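Minutes, project check-in

Agenda point 3 was the complex the collaborators sent over. CS summarized: two entities, 784 residues total, and the question is how they sit relative to each other. Sequences were read into the notes so everyone works from the same version.
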Amino acid sequence: MIKKNRLFTPGPTPLLPAAQTAMASYGAHHRTADFRALFARVLADVKEFIGTKNDVLVLSSSGTGFMEASVSNLTSPGDRVLVLTAGKFGERWASLAKAFGCSVETVTAPYGETFSLEEVRRKLSPTIRCVYMQATESSTGVRHDVERIAELVRTSSDTRPDTLLVVDAITGLGTTRLDVDDWGVDVIIGGSQKALMIPPGLAYGAIGERAWQRMETAKSPRYYFDLRKERKSAAKAETAYTPATSLFAGLAAALDYVRQMGDGNLAAGRDALIANAELCAAMTRAGVEALGLKLFAPSSPAAALTAVAAPAGVDSTAICKRFRDQFGAVVANGQAEMKGQLFRIAHIGYYDYLDTVGVLAALEHVIAEATGRPVEFGCAVRAAQQVYAKVR
Amino acid sequence: MIKKNRLFTPGPTPLLPAAQTAMASYGAHHRTADFRALFARVLADVKEFIGTKNDVLVLSSSGTGFMEASVSNLTSPGDRVLVLTAGKFGERWASLAKAFGCSVETVTAPYGETFSLEEVRRKLSPTIRCVYMQATESSTGVRHDVERIAELVRTSSDTRPDTLLVVDAITGLGTTRLDVDDWGVDVIIGGSQKALMIPPGLAYGAIGERAWQRMETAKSPRYYFDLRKERKSAAKAETAYTPATSLFAGLAAALDYVRQMGDGNLAAGRDALIANAELCAAMTRAGVEALGLKLFAPSSPAAALTAVAAPAGVDSTAICKRFRDQFGAVVANGQAEMKGQLFRIAHIGYYDYLDTVGVLAALEHVIAEATGRPVEFGCAVRAAQQVYAKVR
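CS then shared the predicted structure for the full assembly.
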């Protein structure tokens, strides 16, 4: 049977056709009025998409580049930082901060869970310069409570405004509500290959005033990721270094699409995109549970993706392989030491009803063959349909 | 919810991404060595795809253009021709033949059925110059028995070799087995926007020696569709008039894809494409019947598409509208006087498992809402999955 290339991975995600066309046809030089107009428009639209009054930057790098920038621009060697970690991306924050010579405190939650707010409160102290966290931890499918943690950072110590909150929302933006300014998030980070439906290569983010001030004294080395330099260039609708021009053209097309989803209003479109991910996720969770499988993150599941525990005695590597070989569907395995234990189905960005029931129907065959036990065909699909029908 | 543009129509069909890329990037002039090389390659590949030793032509027109060519090049005004008609495309043959002044005999089957071979035999006579038919009638979802009818034309009268058999296989090629040369089909016609997965704009076909001979005496007027002129040009790897160049680039990419489906063998790839359509169709028929719906062409269903009778009291126009509005899925209504009575789901070309179960799951919602009667969610999907699991 024909197998279309179908990404169900939490980034890269399925490409928006209008963005593909825009990328294929874009060829302007970056030091021209044409590109400056495109760049200015993208910055304004990203600002509206994030929903912030803060300055917005788009870097030509993956999301990890913006994560690094949030360490190198905001810390000095020896600074104490607090990393909230509950998965591979939380661990990345810790590695990054260590690489720049920070003294790293952590609040850790087991894989598949979110943090104890009480523990976060206890770890916050006047000497913590930055708190680093994820909005959604894509390695485990968990949604963290950014609003609550921001409130703790803001109120639980008299150290505020010295402690900055940096949120990696690379899979969070466009899949979960984030009132960045209201909650007092100092830096928020997104990536192009997630809810914005284009390939990897751009990272975007919003940076608040207190973070800009910190940069004046932060001494960690940075050059390509020097955010003050980017800000100065952006004020002239330019980038400091050569930007990934075609990806900007794609991003503009994707933001137009999101605006159309909101009938001309980009913020409404973003909310519709979030609602889409929430519905795909709710359908998928229902389907997975109807199949007798266990969610890997049952208590705080993200809408970005659904992580599913491999059934007893089955390696999730085999499940991912069956998905790919039999259906052309690329489902993500667990990462690092979680490899083999779970698989992950994404709902970030450009997914619709047919994608969602399709991957569940495929999952029924995959589980039947991987476990060797009978599966009632249609049971996962039906559960998903019941969720869908209720919302309709 | 996001609604992707999803064509389930029996042409145009979903586009092959590799063909889209090839079309977007192709810009050669048509009177160059570059285009001649592309054109020669496409002709050779189309020949292998059809599976014929006859000369192959590709015209820059829709399939109807090649149908017209098969009338204007093979008949003279006043010629008696026999049209086998069981739907809107059979009726098109009759209209075309009349437009060129032929005296048209018909064998008619009711919509949803195929011809009585006995009646075909009775209507064949020494004075019939051409027999025109479809391989699959896309307006009703019926597969006609080309092999049997070819045999009748070949053996049932002593008029052979004077009676030519012309088969519109526009939706037939790549969805049903057609041993053109063995069966003695004089002209067979295909279209680009069907099993070959590119947009409309090219028609292709194979023309046997007896048809070429007929053209020497046929007096109907033709110019753009003068096949002898095209044949002469093709011998020099050229087209008589300006060809739709980017579509040729797309066709080349699509034929490469089919060859890959056959592990390097184009004929094997075509057979795999046919098997794909057969499986999608079998899954869809099982799903439709599990939902309690009636097939419009139960006795001789084509693999190209499944035509489904609208349930009692429901206009199929409303069904098509729900598909489009709610799921972004474009399903075809009945044509002309069949409008409102049936809807059609295609399996031609680039469809996979997820497409097939996805449209069936959507159909369950559509039928539940259109009829107002309860539907057991998952029942159509399950029936399709059972068909799939048996083949695996």
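Noted in discussion: Chain A has two domains: 6-13+265-391, 17-260.
Follow-up: revisit at the next meeting once the mutant set is ready.
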